[in-house]
Protein 1
Amino acid sequence: MSHQEPDVKIERTVLITGASGAIGGALAKAYAGPATRLLLHGRRVEALETLAETCREKGAQVECHAVPLTDDALLRGWLEALAARCLPDIVIANAGQNHHVPGPGELEPWEQVSDLLAINLRAPMAMANILTPPMVRRGSGQFVLISSLAAWHGLPTTPGYSASKAGLKAFGEGLRGHLAPHGIGVTVVMPGYVSSPMCAAMPGPKPWEWPPEKAARVIQAGIARNRARISFPFPLNFGCWWLAVLPAGLSQRLLRLMGYGSHP
């Protein structure tokens, strides 16, 4: 689905997946403005169209898309068509899922884990794989990968989610070093708790929870500076970093003390 806009001079094209979610929607509004084309992707069509109208009122040219991110052929066809017509300057891979263990001694159902890995990790990697060649030919572009503070050390209540975000963090770090000589930036974003239905459904404490608008401002500012990593909020990001630095056994004891070690 798309929306035709009158011809205007476009200075910046931004692609955001997961735009119908809290962080994605806040980022769309933050980037909306004259001379900006927003390519908004999301599963919740009505919410996406409402968001698009808000962004258009701010002067942006907006297109809405709902191509399945986990269908390789459809994803490639969609992105290659976009690249030929309006290659994005910034690609924000924000679409994501979260699941948690259902009970003591149980793991997340494999079907859920498989779907989660497809959305959280495989889809962003596929997007980079498809869009990197035209960006390299142009000599500019930026990939923004939305990871999580859970990437520093796996949370006992969400091992599958933690694994997907750790994988995305590692991929982004490697990709940044590989693409920097070609004029392409890569930024890994590691948020803590940002208010949303997905956040509310996560088990365990949620210290220093931020509204999505605040998160979007910090992310946008970091993207503008091509920062390698954007993590927030302090001091939660500092504490999670220490979980990766300390011996794993000690980190796991600390997580239990903080309320993350037992079934919700």
Note: The chain has one domain: 12-257.
Protein 2
Amino acid sequence: MKKDFGWFSIFRLGLVQAALGAIVVLTTSTLNRVMVVEIALPAMLPGALVTLHHLMQIFRPRMGHGSDLGARHTPLIVGGMGTLALGGVGAAAGTALMHTNLVGGLAVAALSFLVIGGGVSASGTTLLVLMSKRVPSEKRAAGATIVWMMMIAGFAITATFSGKLLDPYSPLRLVQVAGGVSVLAFVIAVVATWRLEGSPVISDEPAEAEEPKAPFAESFKQVWSEPDARRFTLFVLISMLSYSAQDLILEPFAGALFGFTPGGTTTLSGTQHGGVFAGMLLTAVATMALKNTRFASLKAWVVGGCVGSAAAMVGLLAAGVRGAPWPVKENVFLLGLFNGVFSIAAIGSMMALASQGRKGREGMRMGLWGAAQAMAFGAGGFLGTVVVDGAKAFGLAAGPSYAVVFGLEAVGFTVAYLIALTVKFDVGQPRVQTPADAQAVQQTGAVA
């Protein structure tokens, strides 16, 4: 058996996640801006490239299966980060090439974004699997908060410093900055994971029987046959669609109906993210401080966050129908707060659920849920814009058109809440017994 991770080890995993975030934000934000402004491309082109990055994450279950087959996880994390770094440099090179050869540059960028998606899938999935196995249950919500907030810090630091280093802009400088960020991120990941998993700890307790290794298709079928794994996949898909559908319409909504300036809508977006931070911190602190009470249950925070998010969406629906005056900033902050509560509790629950069910399938479960999350997040924003445009095409005014999206999101969070009620989140649920488990019980008397 292995020792549980302490806070310093969790912090080291957070460094890896921050490095991952640094490369991702460079490719999805900075390169997007260069393509639209400096190269004057239609916004749909960089949007399509980012979609490629999300589509590649459909392979997360395969990455998770690879993690299940191996004895160690850090080589896959480092390998994924190396792949991600190569993709980041390639995406910048492709963007620079677009200045002189648009078709060639788009081809290089498209291939690079596929590589980025593969790197994120390998490193991100395996990191979550490692956390699910080594972070003790009472630290999961707080640990997930630390790791995800460090990733967001990676977003912010990279966006700030790369923006300054890119001035004055030139294609060569873009490649140099992207190359520097990618190499630095990879080095940080290597250092952070160095000997992180340690050596096996000798124990006098009888070892549990190992589940036989299975091919990918069989392993996937086994996990999908588990009711909790299947329900949680559906929960992740619906909740993340509801979470992300307002991403691309919230700022236009505030500008069109409530007269927010461009700077004002940017500030509104910051208010929402501030609410997300507050919700994450609240969940992490509460589950640690109240660990011996019912308020420490991750399930309670997941369902509470979904209910609160649905209520906040109903508020935005009312704002779309009624128009001004409406406390839009307060409404958006509450939306962020409850989104933060449900999302970080869901990640902590993901870690707990990954170890429930058939032994040796943690990576497959985490990959399945990660793929559902990526697909929903990638599609949510786009679908939100489609619904708004469709509602306007049917003759609805701007306010009610936005309200349709917010109403659908409220329904989605309500459905996610109902699904969450049926999932056994609590740690300690018995695993599915296999023939190998039964044999171990007979031979050792241990409880599988």
Note: The mean pLDDT is 82.
Protein 3
Amino acid sequence: MKAVYNTLIENVYNVREDDSSRLEIFYKNILHVVPADINLTSVNVSTLTEKNQKYYVVIYKLRNRLTHKSLAKNIELEEEDCLKYMTAMIVCYLDLAYEHRNEINNIYNTQQKAGYLNRKRYADKILDDWSRYVSGFKYVDLQWSDDSSANKTMVQLANGNDRYVKLSGGAGSGKTTALMYLSSVLAGKIKSGSSQILPVYIPLARIIKEGKNMIITETAHILDIETDQVIDLLKDGEIFLLLDGLNEILDRFLKSDVEIAIDEIVSRYTKCHVIVTDRIVPNKNDKAKKMFLKELTLDEKMNFFRKNCKDQEIMKMIEERANTNRSVFIDLNKPLLLRQFLEVTVKNREIPMDMTSEYLEMLMEREMNDKKDPNIRYMNYYLEAIAWHLSGKERAKEGKILSVLGEVNQKMGFNVDTVMCLNLAIGMGILQREDDNSISFVNKGYQIYYAQNYVENNE
């Protein structure tokens, strides 16, 4: 008992005159065991568990002594007294816990089920992650078009009735940023007390096959609760799943398992919300509401610059160029491009006429650092070889392109799945698969850029 006591409040009975804080903690605990409105007369004592009556009486008597003293520290306790009172406190706590075990169990289950104790802390983490992610850039809420041609923002999706949505858009179009922004909006509602719905952002590229439903397993890991508690929250509609990058699962068997897991959640837990991002538009038979990124208007691009350009001279330069030569901004149709354009403009103090090299380099770096895709390290070799093969023409059959990639593997000594890498390049929005099953570059400028790199690297 002495060891337990010293663990709780070290050397409390040897405390110095000018250091009474630990004694006061001890006294407060004693007062707390027997509430002030309890009257332990001989009549009331008989209602307590008989074998523990003496412990309540011990604490009650000390409580009376404490309440009649102006300062708790005026009461001096010997070592034996401390052990006696501590023993009594522990016995009384255990006795009260047993007497009220049903109420305590209900409170515990409610708190565990709802994640009550951790919700605001969880929301704080999401908001901190969002602040670091944008790194000083202010978010411009993106417009999404659906089957009815209506436009919606991410905030509207958070407040709306669309329970299952699939968002599609090319590489760098802002899908990840939009989901993280939505997560921050929902976290803000938790902080304000207006909602208890927990946003759970999951990068699907990091999913591994584990258990019956890997989405539920990953959600439990993120929330730091048990899977059965996740299921309870899903049943009550208190989880908003934000599943990012279905296209980034390169293993087709794992991708199929993930799609089945998502469909199972949507079908079984009819109150929860699910948003999945992909780089291709889902097929017509998909149960999800299909939405795709609406191309940014010039006004929206200028709004982005005004929000994020702190240099008034540069902002004036951009506005003047928008008034005299809008063609400069036509290809700046993705948030990633807009951000890169602004950074290059501020750095060079002039508006760049071509952002191809900067954008493609940023795209590769982002894929390597953020998406953690190991295949990206081979991508420049493949794209340069494809561009050189396409010299004088715009497209080639997919079989021929895969043959070119195989030649690169042989020449460089790579042992890489070329089909997977080809699909990655298509998913990144650099290459595209035509209706006749041929492959071409999405932008003629991309083809020229990689062809020039091939010449320079093979001189």
Note: Strands lie at 144-146, 151-152, 164-168, 198-203, 239-244, 273-278, 289-293, 395-397, 431-433, 438-441.
Protein 4
Amino acid sequence: MKLSVIIVSYNVRNFLESCLYSVEKAATDIDMEVIVVDNNSSDSSVAMVAEKFPGFKLLRNKENRGFSRANNQARELATGEYILFLNPDTLVKENTFRVCIDFMDSHPGAGAMGVKMTDAEGKFLPESKRSIPTPMVAFYKISGLTALFPRSKSIGRYYLGHLDKNMPHQIEVLTGAFFFARKKVLDETGWFDEAFFMYGEDIDLSCRIIQKNYTIHYHPGTSIIHYKGESTRKSSINYVLVFYKAMAIYARKHFNSPGTFLLIYLLFIAIYFRAFLSIAKRIISRLLLPVSDAAIIYLGFLIIPSTWEQQISTTGSGYPPENQAVIIPALITLLIVSVYISGGYSKPFRIEKTLRGLFYGGITILIIYGMLSDQWYLKLITIIPLAIWAGIGTTIVRIFLASLAGRPGSAACVSNTGHPG
């Protein structure tokens, strides 16, 4: 057997199916096998593979074992001279496997190789070629200096930005999204370190390959599409925790040179500070839309003075202050919760889900309305314009977000769904 392709999948059925079709096309005239390891997906991925790709080997896990352990499961089944670890959110070209096999056959000292990766829009992904993150290189990356000086040979070394992406190069680190290696080299160095649940294991394995005096290469003679981030939910706080935990594991394992204690200490501060900022950013981004909706709804109470005056004149005793202190926040909270339950805050944002949530929230308010005493309840004439205002206001916000999504670099404003660079 010349090649074994190992794909670990978790709840990315559609991407996995497209990936497997591309793999099938690229397998023409190549003695190879495909091993799919499913990490207990709940989206019918297993049934799809079994039905549409019966010739592929399929391992079904009863739990999510993570990237490293799942790949290592295929070790006993893989019989190829070469092993390709491939993400399910990728598409390979028809010549990809042939180009890689020919390159490795002609470079016996090469332990592993990667290819040019682009996103769905054809934009080059810098993680196609990387260097070993020494303490200084890692510090530049974590501190954000790499992004400021991407082409610097020293500061931008993490992504080897000074190397021409259209030329072949000997590099140091491959991404787990496409990691093409000799099986005998993997058996010699050991496969993925299972201390890494996800992220960091590709860097660690690359380091061990180089330590065994094998070379790693970047070859732009073929390319793949990587729908970066689709195999993981980067918008989740769990992603942040797993990612930065992996960075900490790698630092403890490899940053043990004498005389670098202070730099390593600063690096750990940077790692955990970035993790804190990332979590804070995600919390704020999740609260931004509900808070905006609440502000718009509250604004409705302020810009309909005639309704307030009519309410005051019909009660004859003035508008009780408890309404502003208790009832109004309670009604707004009820509407926001109703929108949340209806999926109005799930990405991608859907206006119809928001309006459905407001409708059900309004019905609930009317039901509660009939249970309150005269001094507490807001009369129907107040609730109706408020509901109309809430529907119009929240719709405008979502239309605005949708317009932002159409601008270059703004897609994340609406939706964002993988190995990071």
Note: The chain has three domains: 3-129+165-232, 133-159, 285-405.
